[in-house]
Design brief:
single chain, alpha/beta, 4-stranded antiparallel sheet, 20 strands
Amino acid sequence: MNTWTFIKRVTMLTGVSLLSGSALLTAGCVGHPEGKKVPNIIIFYADDLGYADLGINGADPDVRTPNLDQLARDGVLFTKGYVTAPQCVPSRAGIISCRHQNAFGLEDNNQGPLSHNEYTIAERLRDAGYVTGMVGKWHLDLVQNESGKGQRVSPDYLPHTHGFEEYFCGPMGRYHASHDFNGNALENPPQIINDPRFRIDIQSDASLGFLERRKTDDRPFFLYVGYFAPHSPMEDPPHYMERMAHVKEYERRMGLASILAMDDGIGLIRNKLDEMGIADNTLIFFISDNGAPLREGAYVGSRNGPMTGEKGMQTDGGQRVPFLAAWPGKIPAGQVFEKAVWSLDASATALALADAPVDERVEGVNLMPWILGDKRGEVHDALYWRWRSQAAILSGNWKFIRLGNKQRFLFDLTEPGKETSSENKIDQYPEIAEDLERKLKAKADSWQTKGLPDEVVGADQLFFDLHVNLTLPAPPFGKGKTGVYIPWSEDRPANAGLDRWK
């Protein structure tokens, strides 16, 4: 057993962290310099929200996200914001662990759960004196069934085992909770709470409950909100569908209704921060875990335009997502940041501002010097990805993608939406492609599973034929080829749709 695993197990069993207070970690001294006020931190992580689903991005006039648009106006709109994977589990594992998930072998949804060997953002902030809270979709607790077929949720990997002191964890219907909606601590948590109400409203209520409890807690806080929107199963709650009546395509309307619900919740949370007088000492990030799924049978009314591709791809449609940050009074408002950043930078920025433990495993970059204008130019020399049979590297405006050992692409991303075979520049700039592939291979060789994929997964080939090679018809929007749909009913069972939500 390594030292970090031992420390985590003692903390889980006793409730006392060996790293709290002024204890020492190899990364250095934990705790805040005397008299320094550190910010509260909130990270909102949406689910399958595409680039086109944020109103201020200007891609679709049907979108209604007034509170998120205001968040962008109050801070920074990152136009080239990426995540570390085009799929839920690895993307979430990256931002929570503060490092690229491929470094510890959690590369796709089938390779969970998140190992207790990882020193998470919640644990690092907890050990710097923060109270830590988690609400909504977690998805880092999935283990293989004993039969080897399918996955199940394991209580051994729920948020409280990864540093979250308070939590209301679950996508919909059934939740593992430390507190009820009245703010009361539950005995012997986690306890199961069944609630059939619309999942987004519940997740907003639980987030507000966490903030209400801070009125009697002087510690700075970290809140991670995994909104389950607009991911399948699709729902059509009347109180949001009526407000999106201008959208004619019913599936798009359902997706935008769930996004509107999330936007309402974020508005309520920001109002709560104002009411508590702490808005100007709260850093907020808003990011989506990956792009929108468009393929037949998976579409949930979200869109990626003008980006090419969809969830499950390493083109921009799969990994370039809505990405915002705001900290009133500290981050100058109204910024549009056009250099590439990614989700690991949100983690690194939070840790830096909190004076939390940082070691060589933290891979992101503190964005504040760029946001404040103290630094200019690119934030990263390159960003790297590998997922299933795809691998990619972005450096400046050049993006190299490799599909197994079968196809190679070099795209100039000066303008979005140019990742198609007709725009492939690899024959014009072979030296650039070779240099990027060499760097990509070197990075891949440093990950737990080394190297670049040679074989091509059939589903990946289909993705590329559909969106890049353009040899298949476009996705059938509005034709009923959608993800799981649960018609709204006030008396539906609390566990409706849970068998299909992953």
